[in-house]
Amino acid sequence: MGKLFFYVALALVVVSGLIFKPEVAELVIHPMDQFNVTSYTSDHVSMFAITNVTVWLGLAVLAVFALMVLGSSRRAIVPSRAQSVAELTYGFIYKMVEDVAGKDGVKFFPYIMTLFMFILMANFLGLIPTSFTTTSHIAVTAVLAALVFFTVTIVGFVKNGVGFLGLFWVSSAPLALRPILAIIELISYFVRPVSHSIRLAGNVMAGHAVLKVFAGFAGALGLFSFLPIFAITAVYALEVLVAFIQAYVFTILTCVYLKDALHPSH
Amino acid sequence: MASNTQDAAHGAAEAAQGSAPGMPQLDFSTFGNQIFWLAIALVAIYLILSRVALPRIAAVLAERQGTITNDLAAAEDLKAKAVEAEDAYNKALADARAEAQRIAADARAEIQVGLDEAIAKADEQIAVKAAESEKAIAEIKAGALESVKEVAADTAEALVSALGGKADAKAIAAAVADRTKG
Question: How far apart are CA A261 and CA A265, in angstroms?
């Protein structure tokens, strides 16, 4: 059955390549155009203009609302499909916060859940063809990472006072090495938000750009356009995985940083 | 080749216009807009989650846990009751068996008593009848012996007279008695 389907799909692709003759189509693809921010209300992108960013952020909020609120609206003891997904997501992140950040990290659970749900939904919405991916923009991920960085730093100092600086003073190392290690630790601490934000935006942007580059090949290869189309299918499957994994990675790193703030000693 | 250079020229023209630099991500003029809407989106998601979704899901999970615990406890209870009921049933069964055995034994004993009585009565009657019969038989025997003696005496007398002797009644009686004794 699967094999038959595969061959039918292959035949369809070849036939469509023959019929539409992509080499003569006016198909010029700019891989980075998908990331353009365009305003619907004004000529240039001003601060409060309604842009495609607004639309896709709004859709992400709606998606979170649909899954977590509408999905759980029946409050069933035996859950429906949507409610199970909502409960699984809740349990997944709750357990992550509890395991990684500890019991006293649980009161930050709504913040971490907000980050995870937003990134997850934005990533998945970005996988819809012709959509705009908000998490591919460094402006968005930098704000998320900065939120985490400042929250964690403030929580660390409020909870531990000056003791939070013990995070940089590796008491298990020989005394002579400690100042050097302290400098390294300090640098790594300030690099955290940079890697935290660029990891997410970079992964998402690279994947989407690769999809568009392959689409450009499909336009140039004529009859053999089915090769890049299969490559797009494969990369798309990978991107679905990346969409989830990057949300997961961002969230678990947030938990790790929070753990450092709550329990700074090594 | 020609199209490539055309593309490059096109891209360069766009870049010159300033509408699309190499990476839209680095177009700082859009940052304000993105950050503004992101802040609104994050606050919205946070409010949705912390006010509605998370408490509701937590309540549902707790309720489910409670239901499961209650159901398990109820099941445990019912199981204990079932074991109790089985014990009671077994006890009732054993009691009934013992009662039945007792009743059977009583009945048997009663019947035995009646039977013994009847047997004793019958034995008695049989003994009476046997005694009566023995008596009758003894009488008949005695009668028969007497008759034998008479017949023997008569025969002996007739024989003696037939042989031409004179029958002495006393001697004949003594002889007959002597012979019939042994």
Answer: 9
* Percent of chain A whose predicted confidence (pLDDT) is above 90: 62
Interface of B with A (CB under 8 A): 3, 7, 10-11, 20, 22-27, 29-42, 44-46, 48-50, 52-54, 56-61, 63-64, 67
Taken in order B156, B157, B162, B165, is the CA torsion positive or negative? positive
C-alpha B149/C-alpha A41 separation (Å) is 169
Burial class (CB in 10 A: 0-12, 13-18, 19+), A60: buried
Q: Determine the Cα–Cα distance for residues A122 and A133; give it in Å rounded to an integer.
A: 7
Say yes or no to pLDDT of B21 above 70. Answer: no
Helix ranges, A21-132 (H): 52-64, 81-101, 109-126
Give ipTM to 2 decimals: 0.87
State how far the Cα of B158 lies from the Cα of B37, in Å rounded to an integer: 171
Domain coordinates in residue numbering, chain A: 49-262
Residue B88, both tokens: 């009671």
